[in-house]
Structure formats: C-alpha cells, structure tokens
Amino acid sequence: MTQILIDGCVLSANYALIALGITLIFSIINLLNFAHGELFMVGAFMVYYVYGVFHLPFVAGLVVAALVTAVIGALFEKFFFAPVMRSSTREENSMLLAVGTALLLDSVALFAFGHEQRGVPDVIPGVMQIAGGFLPYQRLLVLVVSLVLVGVLLWFVQYTRPGRAMRALAQDRDAARLMGVNVERTSMLGFAIGAALAGLAGGLLVTVQGISAGAGPAISIKAFIMIMIGGAGVVGGALLGAVVLGFAESIGYSLLPGSETYLLIFVALILFLIIRPQGIMGHPWG
Amino acid sequence: MSTSIRIGRRTVLAGAGGAAVAATLGRPAIAATKTFTVGVLGVLSGPDAAWGLVNKYCATATANMYNAAGGFPIGDDKYHLEVVPADTELDPKIAVAGAEKLTQQLGLRYVIGPNTDTGALSVAPVMNRSNTIFIPYAFSRQLYTPPAENAILGMIASYEAGPIIYKYLMQKRGVKSISFLASNEPDALDQQKQGVAAARKLNLKILSADATYQPSATDFFAVLSPLVRQKPDLIVFSGVAPATAPLLIKAARQLGYKGQLSTETAQNIKILQQGAGKYAEGFISVGGASTPAIESDYMTRFAKEYQKVAGEWDDEAGTKVYALEMILRTIAKAGPKALTDTTAFKAEMDSFEIANPFMKDHPPLRYVGTGYFQQKRQIGVPLVVNEVKNGSFQTLFVGFVS
User: Fold this and answer.
1) Domain covering B11-155+291-381, topology
2) I need a labelling partner for A279 at 20 to 30 A (CA). Which of A164, B345, B377, B401 fits?
3) Does any CB of chain B come closer than 8 Å to the CB of residue A114?
4) Would you list the domain boundaries of chain B?
5) Using one digit for the tens of pLDDT, what is the confidence trace for B178-227?
6) What average pLDDT does the segment B295-317 reach?
7) In sequence order, what are the residues at sequence separation of 6 or more whose Cβ sits closer than 8 angstroms to the Cβ of residue B153?
C-alpha cells in the first residue's frame, strides 16, 4: 500500500508539470499544443547535454532547458501561431499547425540528437525506505522541485501583473485588449511560459526516465488525457487531472499486472467524457 | 533443431574467412563498373527508429568498405554496392508501400528488413510475388516455414535464446522461479508467450506470465512493484527495446529487487550505463559480433566504419552485421545469375558455408533453421550471451544454433 501511495504521488507530481504547461497555453490562446511533448523532449535533451555531457550543475541544465524551450515557444507563437490565428477563422487551422510544429520538432530532434536513448546520472543517488515502500532520492528531488515550480507558477499567475494579464486574456480576449492588456505580448509570454514548463518537466524527468528523440508524442497524449480529466484551460483542473492519472496508473498496475490498466483508464475516460465532457473543473461554455 | 552451447570451439576453417575478406579488401582499388543495389526496409523514423537505422547503417558500412576496395567481386566483375532505404514508420501499410517501391519500381531482389513481425508478415506477399529475398528481424515462424521460402531470419530468435539462457541460469545461478514482463505490443507479447512456454518446459516456477506495460511507458515503478513483491529469482524483460531496458533495470533495483534480470534481445552498453549506471551490473542480454571476446580484426574495422556512418557505435549493430555480408557471399558463390534470379540464391543456401569473417576463430558460417522451420532459412549467427560487469559487456558463453 505504501508503495502505491509513493508511486501515485511521484507520478502525479511529474504529470502536473506537463499538464500545467499545456493547459496554460490552451487557456491563453485557445490552442491545443500538439508539440507539448516535443518541447518536453527538447528540455530533457538540454539537461542531458549540460548536466550529462558537459558535467555542469544540474540547476544550470534546468535553466538552459527552460530558456531554450521558452524561446522556441515564443518564436512559434510569434511567427507561426499568431499570424495563422489572425488570418484564419477556423480553429482547426491552428490545430493542424500545432501538429506540423510537433512533426517539425520530431524531425529536427532526430537529426540533431540522433536516435539513441539518452540518460544522465542521478543528482542524488540512493533509495530511502518509508514504511516498507521504496522512494529513490532522485524521485523525491523531482517531486519537491515539481511542487515548488507548480507553487511558483500559481503565485505568478495569481499575483503578478503579467499573470493577471494572462488570466484576463484567458477569460475574454477582447475585454482584456480594451482594458489595455498588450494581447500579442501576453500571448507570447503565456506560450513561452507553457513551453518552459514542458522543458522543465523534461529536464527534471530525464534523470528518472531518460529521453529519446521520439519521446514527444507519448508525452503529449498523456498531457491531453490529464486536461480532458481535469478540464481544459483550468489550472486547478490540470493539477487534478495529473493526480487522477498518477494514482490511476499506480493503483491499476498494482492490482492488474496486464494491459488492463490503460484499457480501463481509456474506458473510464470515455464514459466520464460522455457524462461530463468539460472535465471535472472545466466549464460547459468553454 | 538441436541447440547446443559450444564454448571455445576451434576453427574448422580457421582463418579462411578473414583471409578471404582481407584479400578482397586488400586488392588495389580498381573502380567497379557495375552496380548492385540492396534495399533496407525498416523503421527509420519515430520512437523506434533505432531498430531500422541500425540495419541501414550496417548495410551502408559494409557497402562502404567494399566500395573503398574497388567493389565486391561476383563472377568476373566487381560491383559497386548501393543501399536504398525505405521507411516503414512502424506501420504495416507504409511497409507494404515501401516493399512495392523497392521490388517493383526499383526492381531490387534483395532487401534487409523489416524489423517487426507485423511489418514482415505484411510485406511477405509483395516479396513473394516478385521472388525477392528479404531478411527480417522478426520471429514469426510462418515467415520461414514452407511454403514460404523468401524470408531469411537474420538473427537468433527469442524462442531459441530464451531456453538456453534460462537453463544456464538454473544450472549456474540456482534460478528456480521466474517472472515475465513485456511491452503491450504484438512482437514483445509473442516473445513473452514463447519465453513462458520455454520456462514451463524447464520446470521453472512461473510467478508472473502476463505482466505488461504500455509501449510508450517511461516510468516503471508502478508496473514493477507487484512483480518485485513476488521475489522471483529471475525477471525476464521479453523483447525489450534498448531504450526501455535501462529504465526497467533501474526501477527494479530501486524497488529493492536482488535477483537476476535478463532479456533475449540485444542491448547497447552505453545506453544501459547512461540510463541505469551501476544498477545495470549483472544484467544479462544477447550480444552480437562486436563482443570483444570473439570479434575478429574485420569486425573491428567494420565497427570503425559504422562509427563513421552513424556517428557512434551501437552494440545492437553486432547482431545485424551479417545481413548484407551473407547476401553478397551467397550471390558470389551462386554466381552472377543470382544477382537477378533469387532461385539460384536459394539453391545455393543449403550447401553454403564460409568462415565467419566477424569472429576471431572464424568458425563456419552457414544457413541453419531446419529444426525450427523445416528448411535453412536462418543465418547461423552465433548466440552470444553477455552480462554487464564493471560497466561493460562480458561474454557469459557463446552458443550456436545448428
């Protein structure tokens, strides 16, 4: 039982960072970012090179991961998404563009980083035992840093001027513009922060899971599941989705050793969406 | 087919293979006037790109080496070698399209790949229609059993390696109980099933026969927790990909598992070290021709060429180095007619034998498979079983499927 709780907590914290980034972008510019998993992958590779190859401090790797993915996100928003969203009235155009950016990053990554799986040494080696359960210090570190980052993001969105501007944009884009919010700059900032969160999640988890150039799509799918559970565009919903998925995996794998766990997760998700298509904390009106 | 372990076998044709290769490569580089093209059909993009890219890089490295020596001699001519890749994207439909392109549009009669059962079974009708020889890295027996005759298994199948490894661990390490874990995809599940059947035959106590994980999974704590709690003497990661193996090993050890860990697939020591570090110690896997204990000078040179082509060495390449070499050597023996007529190639297979150019002692290299497939439709590569010791692969034993 202890191990199930530990696994659930660790998985939930890992997933929370991934879900928060994608939900932030969705709430601000109403875009389901299909390249989220690819940004996760880029962040992981940055930490691999900074910490694993050049042997610089792990924190420096995280900073580089956040900066590089933030810049990629900002550039994508400015040069790809903003023009398309300005000129197109159909939502699927930006969605297709998002798929295109995902494929672009996948191909560039395969070319730049190669096809091999990469990994880095633990920042804190060793394993602690809690009431019969096992928790590696590295996973504890990821858990703590994830919680701190989630806290910092919530504080930023709630109490800072750019954070308030992002919330205003999420609620009503036109009203925000009328109230003097620089919509273009705020959109770009939101996309950059969302991308940086994906990069940070990748940078943290490369110490636990390693990374390969093809890892992006699977991460994106998990991110989509979480925001479908919690409610797209709602920060609290993303966190809740992460906890639900993390514990569903942990409990499921413990009770059902076969492939039934994800089968049941998907069946439950479909049934849940039939009853509550907006997710647990989402609003029916969007 | 009887499967036996023959350790330290001295050569029947000692040095002959190496000398032949050295003589071929040592000739003055006279430009080849004719071209022979071979196709590589495999997963070249996406998460599993490593599988197909290794095939492509191996074929390219072999071709480069012969081309640098002026071409490969067949009959009275020397042939410039070309490798044409086609990406299956791990999708059977795309694999069929790729097979049609290689065999019908380009008219190739020799193809290396595909990498999976689903891919190989999908392209088999295309290959058979055009009477094209193909060398899949897939284990489905129907590919190699009559009436099928065009597919040649390029490596040791998991159902051949598994029983040998389990038996060794029972005898040498006192293994009595076993659990299996596989990715939830057809090839790995099939290997898990075959492994369970082999373990049953050996009277091993099976604690878990059907545990699986999602193919895209990267966190295995939750998956492995129940398996580790049962405390088996051996956990087998059936059909595990090199990218996933270190994550599974690390999670198992961090959960306090003290028993043996093994797989019947080839692994990459660099990836194991990066991903699992000291936790990889004692992990048992299938190796290839690059294992230091057995590799010949020719294999060493091949590894250097591979590094030039791919940027870095991949231990999995040691299991895939044989494909183009066997195609070329068999055609050379069958004569120039076999370049376009694979019936001549197939007729040569039964009696074909050369000195293995990749192994130090140059044991005979031939086609095998009569026991499993009722015909010789498997390259008789050695079964090399490695264990990670002090951060590198050490050979536990070398066996032959003969």
Assistant:
1) Rossmann fold (3.40.50)
2) A164
3) yes
4) 11-155+291-381, 158-290+386-401
5) 999 998 888 888 889 989 999 999 999 999 998 888 877 777 888 888 89
6) 90
7) B135, B136, B138, B139, B143, B144, B369, B373, B377, B378, B379
CB A241, CB A228: distance < 8 Å: yes
CATH 3.40.50.2300 fits B158-290+386-401, yes or no: yes
A135-150: b (≥16 Cβ within 10 Å) or e: bbebbbbbbebbeebb
Q: What is the DSSP letter of B153?
A: B
Write down the residue that tokens 């370049």 correspond to.
B339
Q: Provide the CA B200 distance to its chain's centre, in angstroms.
A: 25
Determine, for residues A122 and B222 on separate chains, whether the beta-carbon distance falls below 8 Å: no
- Please name the member of A8, A127, A257 whose beta carbon is closest to the beta carbon of B254: A127
Query: Token pair for residue A200?
Result: 């940070």
A217 at B interface, C-beta within 8 A? yes
- A138–chain B nearest CA distance, Å: 11
| Nearest CB to B47 within list A10, A134, A215 | A215
Q: Is the pLDDT of residue A136 over 80?
A: yes
Shortest Cα–Cα distance, B312 to chain A (Å): 10
Decide: residue B252, CB within 10 A, 0-12 exposed, 13-18 middle, 19+ buried.
buried
User: Nearest by CB to B218, which of A209, A221, A259?
Assistant: A209
pLDDT over 70 (residue B242): yes
User: What are the backbone dihedrals phi and psi of residue B252, each rounded to the nearest 5 degrees, phi first?
Assistant: -60, -45
- Give the 3-state secondary structure percentages of chain B, helix then strand then coil, rounded to 5: 45, 25, 35
The residue of chain B nearest to residue A213, with distances taken between CA atoms, is B47
